[in-house]
Amino acid sequence: MSNVFGLDNIQEFHTELLNKYVNQDIKMEKNLFIELTNIFRNVNEKSDRKALEVKLHNSYEAADPLDSKIIDILINLINKLSGNILINEVVKGFELITNYLDTVLSPIFHDPCHDLTLNALNFVRLSRL
Known about the structure:
mainly alpha
């Protein structure tokens, strides 16, 4: 990814996201963090995705609304990411957006219950004015 966007641009974007959207005072509930750590501790390319999803859905039920967004991201990653080792693969723009960026950003910025939608045009807007 740094080859496509440049490391300086990625770091600048990361800093801007942190400053604009991340409240450093909000922390993940400790028991949920331990539970997620235990779920993913032994995950590898042979792990059963369905079993992982079931465990995550069980955690989702007990999570508060903010923590549930993290679980949404993890479930999206399980569903979209390839089971193949991609360390030497070239990832192009469309694949980068649909399999990686959208998977993480959508649960954070897309909230139809509050009329927020994440568009393909890279901005968040109100769906009705």
